[in-house]
Amino acid sequence: ALTHYWTPQLRSGLMGSYGQLNYDQEGTNFITANSAIGTAFPRLRGGRFGFVDIQEFRLEGNLIWSPVRDLDIGVDVLYQNINPQGRVVSVDRTVTGARAGTFRLVEDEDIVVGRFRVQRDF
Q1: Which among 52, 56, 111, 45 has a CA at the least distance from the CA of 85?
Q2: For the chain, how long is the longest CA-to-CA vector?
């Protein structure tokens, strides 16, 4: 992480991280064409249930203006890449957390989040 003060009232920050999680082969199961799920949902063949190896990369930046002491106004932008190794099957859930009865594949996903911030410390 790095923070730079352009002026006493204006600063910016840049942060980054990388994480990797690896399991041995016994921690995962595969959906094959002969399995019950593979037969019922052909597009899920080759997907994995169970624990999967994951790589994650994050990069975040912000620009903060402090017009008076203990008041920050600014913007934050976060980019995140999540890459499960292989095709991962996820069970969709309803708002209450119950299974919705549908499956989807989770592959390499990019996420961008932005926020506007007004923060008062006291």
Answers
A1: 52
A2: 66
Q: What is the Cα–Cα distance from 81 to 3, expressed in whole angstroms?
A: 23
Residues 6+ apart with CB under 8 A from 41: 103
Any idea what DSSP says for residue 38?
H
User: Cβ atoms within 10 A of the Cβ of 67, count?
Assistant: 9
Strand segments, DSSP code E, in 66-98 are: 71-84, 87-93
pLDDT tens-digit profile, the chain (122 residues): 999 999 999 999 999 999 988 776 655 555 555 566 666 776 666 665 556 778 889 999 999 999 999 999 999 999 999 887 765 656 555 555 555 556 666 677 889 999 999 999 88
59: exposed, middle or buried (Cβ count in 10 Å: 0-12, 13-18, 19+): middle
